[in-house]
Design a protein that fits this description.
By secondary structure, this protein is of the alpha+beta class. The protein has one domain. The protein has 2 helices and 6 strands. It starts with a helix and ends in a 6-residue tail after the last helix. The structure holds zinc ion (2 copies). The site of one zinc ion has 6 residues, from β4. One zinc ion (ZN) binds next to β6.
Amino acid sequence: MAVGLSNPGILPRVGDPVVVEYDGYRPDYCRHCRIYRPPGTRHCSDCDACILGHDHHCVWIGKCAGEGNIKRFYVFVTSVFAMLVVYLFAILNAHKNMVYPAV
Ligand SMILES: [Zn+2]
Ligand SMILES: [Zn+2]
């Protein structure tokens, strides 16, 4: 829930493009957002924004996993996996205790 409400690291769009140098590295220009993006930033066409520390666009949370929410995203993935394991054990246990009719 919290990961779906968090900001993944969307870079704000500014009126005039501003070139920011990072230790001699000249950042890429995003023609969609019209900004120069810092290293590790990628444009997501689904979110229509440049995401700082972009990891991937997740269809389950409906937004990107980026620098702003990657820790919450990992907690989300871990909790979903844990729920799946508990669910599978519950199913296996239910089948073990089930009494099947004699044929
Ligand atoms: Zn962009
Ligand atoms: Zn996205």
